[in-house]
Amino acid sequence: MNPDDFEKRLQRLPMRNVPVEWRGEILDAARRAGDPQRSIPNPRPGSWWRELLWPCPQAWAGLAAAWVLILGLNAATRERVQVATVQSTPPAREVLMALKERRRLLAELAGLSVQVEPKKPAAPRPRSQLSQRTFTG
Q1: Residue 126 — φ and ψ, nearest 5°?
Q2: Residues 2-37: tens digit of each pLDDT
Q3: Which residues does 50 contact at the CB level (< 8 Å), separation at least 6?
Q4: Alpha carbon distances (Å) from 117 to 34, 96, 100
Q5: CA–CA gap between residue 134 and residue 10 (Å, rounded)
Q6: Which of 96, 127, 101, 125 has the alpha carbon at shortest distance from 115?
Q7: CB 114 within 8 A of CB 122
Q8: Is residue 102 within a helix (H) or strand (E), and if so which, with residue range?
Q9: Could you tell me the pTM of the whole model?
Q10: Nearest CA-CA partner of 117 in 96, 89, 91, 133
């Protein structure tokens, strides 16, 4: 069927009237289309970012491309970090012996007298500043 046959068929059909209820809706829509657009927020969700980028989307796209380029170059030129294996810590006795030896060597180099044993702490005292008294009642 070509377009001419279709038009001839339409011309033969009787013209129907538009329902009265539709007339008011059609006229309201035409009036609204003719009114200048008022500044109303877009009710669609997610359109706030379009409003933010609207003044110059090309500039924002260029800025985003520059950041992608910078991050790509940073990732490409980053030195690879080699993770060293962590050995278990030596026992405390060995560490103390190594520290004593180090102190002795430092004292020798400084020309100080070498102490064989560090001073031992005095016997623990009570933490309270009050003297112990016996109360009889």
Answers
A1: -65, 150
A2: 878 889 998 898 888 878 888 888 888 888 887 766
A3: 42
A4: 101, 12, 9
A5: 122
A6: 101
A7: no
A8: helix 92-110
A9: 0.28
A10: 96
- What is the C-alpha R_g of the chain? 46
Please state, in angstroms and rounded to a whole number, the distance separating the CA atoms of residues 31 and 10: 30
Q: CA neighbours within 13 Å on the CB side: how many for 96?
A: 5
- Cα separation, 70 vs 52, in Å, equals 24
What DSSP string describes 12-45? HSPPPPPPHHHHHHHHHHHHHHHSPPP-----ST
Q: Given phi > 0 = left and psi -120 to 50 = alpha, else beta, which region is 111?
A: left
The CA distance from 91 to 40, in Å, is 74
Each residue's pLDDT tens digit, 63-80: 999 999 999 999 998 887
User: Angle at Cα 105 formed by Cα 104 and Cα 109, nearest 5°?
Assistant: 120
Structure tokens that stand for 3 in this block: 């377009």
Q: List C-alpha distances in Å: 130 to 16, 127, 135, 137.
A: 111, 9, 14, 19
